[in-house]
Each structure stands twice: as structure tokens, then as C-alpha cells.
Write a structure and sequence with these properties.
single chain; 59 residues; mainly alpha; 2 helices; 66% helix; 0% strand
Amino acid sequence: MTNKSLVAPNSKEILSNMKYEIARELGVTLGADTTSRMNGSVGGEMTRRLVELGKQNLR
């Protein structure tokens, strides 16, 4: 049996807010009418920032 409960229940909301904040900073309007490259740039920037946060927490 698997446990599908989240460790941090509000993490989905936080990540969603982060996604739209980064999209605004990059000037990208997320959605189907935007190229996958532009939508992907938001995901890439999210990953870079989350990795940096993780590194800072390990120090």
C-alpha cells in the first residue's frame, strides 16, 4: 500500500504561485498559445531556484 499524502500539504499552492511569479518576471504568458520553449523556460527557472534553495539549506 502506498501513502499518497504530501509531506507539505501546501506545497502545490506554493509551487503554483512560484510558477506564475517566475512567468511574470520572464514576461511569459503560460498556456496553450505559448510555445513549449517559453513554457519550459519557466519550469527550468523554477528548478534552478529550487536547487539553489536546497543547496542553501544544506550549508
